[in-house]
Amino acid sequence: MPESITIIDNRTNESVEIPIVQGGVAASQWSALLGNIWFLDPSFNTTAATTSAISEVDGENGILRYRGYPIEQLAEHSTYLEVAYLLLRGELPSANEYETWVHDITHHTFIHERFRKRFMESFLHDAHPMGMFVSTIAALSTFYPEAKDIEDPDNRMHQIVRLIAKVPTVAAAGARFNSGLPFVYPDNNLDFTTNFLSMMFKIAEPTYECHPILSRALDLLLITHAEHGQNCSTSAARVVGSALTNPYSVIAAAACALYGPRHGGANQAVVEMLHHIGGYENIDPFIKEVKSGKTRLMGFGHRVYKNYDPRAKIIKKTAHEVFEVTGSNPLLDIALKLEEVALDDNYFAERRLYPNVDFYSGLIYQSMGFPPDMFTVLFAIARTAGWLAHWVELLEQGSRIARPRQVYTGSATRDYVPIANR
Ligand code: ACO
Which of 166, 356, 367, 379 has the maximum number of C-beta atoms within 10 A of its C-beta? Predict the structure, then answer.
């Protein structure tokens, strides 16, 4: 049987045979025959916007691989910085390459002092840290004007190192400002994740120390959130990047998309939902509200995963390990019961709704002491590696500017009416 589709234009009786490649067809071949007939595909449900070699998301089988490596193996054996290298360069680093990479990242973590004081401290005391994060990352482009030379691969890599190194510093600076605590400078003697925890939580101790299970748990959360194909924020990064915009603005645009509650804002929404439910006795009435369409069960459902989200499995296990160190989080019991009730209910089964990456991550963050406003910022730190990998891939593909069509449904032509006659 030929791996192709034949379309006949009944207006002209012309036909075209289009090969099916990897489960898809090239839209350019349709348009060669059908001229100005467009695909109407709001939310891109059936449109592949690009080819990509970075991550493979198989929603039917609950599979996620970064550059071919299963997420379960990376979560067990790797570190966030090694995963970032893998995503950006395509291969795991050798011992020497890893050492240089970690050294480079560690030595670019500082942000300009005046910038932090004058720019970041000009926000209102209760500014949302995600709002501070996106604005600050965008503003960094004014500090590194050479970043706009995106054609030079060495310059690109230099900006990438800066971004991966500085996003935790910017994130922590925003959180400290919010809580009225003094800024903590990066500590080059700490690993990437522990340094971030130090910038977040250090008070007066000479060197920050934390339980290795906690820093490992956070590193694992960064790994599982690092990349996920053409999701909303990565698509935003690619669309903005296709205009040949500098990388700071690209990452800020992606982070803006992540800010929304349907995307990276969901982990905060899960904790708020669990607080709102408050106790076992309120679970059934809450599920009723969800089923009547009044609200959504946050942390459930995914555009791609329709059987289970492999990241949710890893994170649920980590949650139990973290709670052994921090003491149980009372919301965990509600979450476990809620999950059990939902998985047993036809409404969720029929719609193939399962816990996603955000169902348990917020509980871990909360137990580690992160304020809920910071949860999406943590996601943004992790996803910076994935966004940058897509930005590089896009530039190397030499793609054209992103420019979807629209099907116009507005008024037919009409004459302007002077205001006095309306
Ligand atoms: N709770 C209740 N019902 C839901 C949920 C949910 N969380 N998610 C989807 N549904 C229902 C919809 O109401 C719809 O029902 P209907 O067919 O009776 O109208 C059906 O399931 C299909 O839903 P869609 O909105 O079409 O699914 P879509 O793929 O567009 O949405 C999304 C995916 C946005 C993730 C959605 O499941 C959702 O809003 N979940 C809650 C928010 C969340 O957890 N987001 C994090 C996603 S993971 C991430 O971004 C990192």
Answer: 379
DSSP per position, 146-166: GGG-TT-HHHHHHHHHHHHHH
Going across the sheet that includes 69-70, the strands are 55-58, 63-66, 69-70
Ligand 1 atom nearest residue 303's Cα: 29
Phi, psi of 296 (to 5 degrees): -115, 150
Amino acid at 77: H
Q: Which of 353, 358, 359, 383 is the best mutation target for the ligand 1 pocket, counting ligand atoms within 8 Å of the beta carbon and taking the most?
A: 353
300 Cβ below 6 A of ligand 1? yes
Distance between alpha carbon 153 and the CA centroid of its chain, in Å? 24
Kindly report the pTM of this predicted structure.
Answer: 0.92
Give which of 29, 387, 58 is closest to 236, Cα–Cα. Answer: 387
Token digits of residue 96:
């020497």
Instruction: Flag the least confident range among 242-251, 330-339, 413-422.
Output: 330-339
User: 236-268, pLDDT tens digit by residue?
Assistant: 999 999 999 999 999 999 999 999 988 888 888
Contact criterion met (CB below 8 Å) for 377 and 131: no
> Which residue reads 């019961």 in tokens?
337
Condensed to tens digits (0 to 9), the pLDDT of residues 387-402 reads 999 999 999 999 899 9
**Cβ contact 283:334 at 8 Å:** yes
Nearest residue (by CA) to ligand 1, atom 35, is: 302
Model pLDDT for residues 136-166, shown as the tens digit of each residue: 999 999 999 999 999 999 999 999 999 999 9
309 is a catalytic site residue: no
* Rounded-to-integer distance, Cα 152 and Cα 38, Å: 36
